[in-house]
Amino acid sequence: MTDPKKPDQPIGDDDWADAMFEQEKADSRGDAPGEEEDPWAAAMAEQAAAESADAAPEPAEAPKPARAAGDSVFRPLEQGGSLSAARDLEMIMDIPVKLAVELGRTRITIKQLLELAQGSVIELDGLAGEPMDILINGYLIAQGEVVVVEDKYGIRITEIITPSERVQKLNR
User: Fold this and answer.
1) Angle CA(85)–CA(91)–CA(94) in degrees, nearest 5?
2) Beta bridge mates, 75
3) Which H or E run contains 13?
4) I need a surface site. Which of 38, 44, 64, 136 has the fewest CB within 10 A?
């Protein structure tokens, strides 16, 4: 017979006898694995004790008066607060965002999608002359109109969307 951890060394009868002797010695000391305290039994006993304590009526405690957190919790505002806010804002200035301009949208079936070929026309829900939506990371933030600058398309912002208007636009 061989030890799985050491396949090139055979296990002799002496090794088994030594292991059995160590186990008997541990059993006689009381630190054998079988005699360990069962953590589940301890947890169940603790839970039963907690439930019985909850069942017993406790005297009602008077509510503690509320006290202000004061300087112990919140840092006092300093005169240089605007300076630190500017530094915090500088940290995010180089974060890239995705700007997209949307002409319009439409819904088509998979059959219609598969029938598309070069020269096909897809009708969008946006009307001609209607302002286009400007989206930052998928959120509508403004509307504008298309312009051509040096043979490239651009967009002129005509209206910035307020937060309340953004909520209304989500429902369309």
Assistant:
1) 135
2) none
3) helix 13-29
4) 64
Global pTM exceeds 0.70: no
Segments in the chain below pLDDT 50: 32, 34-35
Structure tokens belonging to residue 149: 């600058």
Does residue 157 sit in helix, strand or coil? Answer: strand
- Tell me if residue 137 falls in helix, strand or coil: coil
Q: What are phi and psi of 11, to 5 degrees?
A: -90, 125
Domains of the chain: 94-171 (2.30.330.10)
Over residues 41-71, the pLDDT tens digits come to 777 888 888 777 666 555 556 666 666 666 5
Tokens 């292991």, residue?
19
Q: Which residues of 27-49 are buried (b: 16+ CB within 10 A; e: fewer)?
A: eeeeeeeeeeeeeeeeeeeeeee
